[in-house]
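User: Predict the complex with 1,3-dihydroxyacetonephosphate.
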Amino acid sequence: MNKNLRKAVIAGNWKMNKTATQAAQLIDELIPAVKDAGCEVVICTPFTSLVTALEKTKGTNIHVGAENVHFEASGAYTGEISADMLVDLGVEYVITGHSERRQYFAETDETVNKRTLAALNAGLKVIVCVGENLTQREQGVTEELVRMQTKIALQGVTAEQMANLIIAYEPVWAIGTGRTATADQAQEVCAAIRKVLAELYGQAVADATTIQYGGSMNAKNCEELVSKPDVDGGLIGGAALKAGDFATIVAAASK
Ligand code: 13P
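Assistant: Here is the predicted structure with 1,3-dihydroxyacetonephosphate placed in the model:
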């Protein structure tokens, strides 16, 4: 398995944190801290901070993403944001299928698939999240579940579009809990995801696809996680809100 075949990507998922004013302050700290990164650096901010983030990061190595996108192009969907609205602003990335969207906002594998397709078709790069909850892990169905989530999320996605798609393996029990998956657990599931990609698109596409780990990744445990052969970076929640910690994770993924 050759990690040089794909990009390591460290993406911050800011979730519902930071006003636009606070976002500007954090980005001012981040710019010098990650400027020498040897991996792709992305910050996914709340919709209200996107314009600020885009203005602040212009001419830097920081890429900007949104945390969700609706699947319809336009219409009577109060409170939703379309892919074209994001593209028009200059947003490059978007997260789909985050477990918090699935858990609190009734998103299903089917709506995750629709959002992923809408985003890809509009030209966005998509970070699709999959992952089991604690019960499912204890029931021993992690691999089956993650395989199913991946296959449904990717229905209709072409091999060419896979160049714009990242999968983030985020075990729900590790998100915001301080309980990280071990590096071996992360590796095992990321490898299983790559196997599904090979079945769907062939080995070359599977080898070229970035697969991240997410769930309590921090400045202390990042090094071991990203050193695993199938873990190509991370999707970072809490630690992405501290410039120093985020920069440490970026540096670990740059090696
Ligand atoms: P934490 O890093 O806060 O556990 O969050 C992970 C996550 O959900 C990233 O999308």
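The radius of gyration is 17 Å.
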